Amino acid sequence: MKKVLLLAAVALGFSAVAQDAVNARLMQAELPVSSAAREKIENIILKRGGAVDELYDYTDFLYQYYSSDMVLGAITTTPDSTTTIVYSDGSASASYNHAVGATYDFNYYGWGDGEFNEGDQVTIDSLFVVGGYEIYDANNDADKIRFTIFKGADGFSAPFSGVQYPAAYFAALPSTVQPSAKTMDYAGSTSHGVAGGPTATSTVQVEYTLDEGDTSVALIGVEVPNGGFTMDADELLGIFVEYLPDGLGSSDTINYQTLSGDLNPFYFYYYREGNTSAPQGYFIQDFDSTSTNCSNFLFTDTRYGNHAGTSAWRNDQTSINMNYSHLIWLRASGTSTVGSEELAITVASIYPNPSNGVVNVELNANANATVTVVDILGQVVYRSNENFVAGNRKTIDLSTQAKGMYLLSVEGEGINVVERISIK
After folding, report:
1. Rounded Cα gap, residues 33 and 323, in angstroms
2. Could you count the other beta carbons within 10 Å of the beta carbon of residue 251?
3. Is the N or the C terminus of the chain less surrounded, counting Cβ atoms within 10 Å?
4. Is 143 in contact with 248 (CB distance < 8 Å)?
5. What is d(CA 391, CA 44) in angstroms, rounded to the nearest whole number?
6. What radius of gyration do the chain's Cα atoms show?
7. What pLDDT digit, counting tens, does each position of 260-282 carry?
8. What is the mean pLDDT of the chain?
9. Structure letter (DSSP) for residue 338
10. What is the CATH code for 345-423?
11. 243: nearest Cα among 222, 229, 264
């Protein structure tokens, strides 16, 4: 039932020649994040703790392990590229980012107790996104955030056609591997403008009207109407999030230097990898185990401009960026059969996690099993055959190993558990 990681994927790194130009453009368009904003966002994340109480967020999951190598960023979002953004240093550019999105896979083992089996049904009850909102023009008093959600098969077909990257795109993978990632299909037009949207045939839209109470760091939450959005757990969920400013014109300006503008700015927060010269691929580390991806952008110079060469797919799909993850999450409910399956097999408890290197492993039954620990390069750093007695713990001493992420597996008759552990 559990999906096993492709070990090398934990240490994904991008080859220098394969860097997407969008990465550089995103960084160019980033806004500085204040220490107060950073503290507020980290408090939100730490208090929630990932897929606890049926709350799902992939960024949260990664933050628990990589917070020391993740940088909080923000980028202004406008419906098209006619808006000029003046940054605090006086430099100016067209608005590049026009929407953000995420795909969610409820079969993902990383959700822990919140994982669903393929035959289960899931109901999406509410949606959330973290952003920054400022009021520069009080006359624009109908600014909105629009959530669009839809479902589709977990395969390379509409509305999640996905992208397959060339072999050797990720430096840590064998040169023959072509990693794939899902994104949402998007239909624009060949002309510049605000027309277009996800191509899914059946969508649910929920809008939230911003007000003064949402200024600075805002946790925007909406309830899905009509009792929620129900789907099978083996389907994917698409979440598309737009900012719809009031009074949009064809030549607007948002000026962060003078704190003025024709539009009120809204910027979506996200985490990205701290080391942009040699990124580790944290946000694609489980590409072989999940279609969850929180780094979809609708991101172009002209929104619907024609892209040539290897970027041609962006004409009808949102752009995936494997170094970024937006703070988009949702609350879902349903009856999972994962727990009932696990009651019939031997269960392992591995604690504390994170640890200083001394880890306890405990089974709920008597069993002979092999405990193996591998590092991010797939090298075995510990292996031991153990005779477990139900309820008694075995202590694994990894204190001589370097700080970082490892995979600990417990394998034997009736047991096959793989869990990430972190040494700090």
Report:
1. 18
2. 8
3. C
4. no
5. 35
6. 22
7. 999 999 999 999 888 766 666 67
8. 80
9. H
10. 2.60.40.3080
11. 264
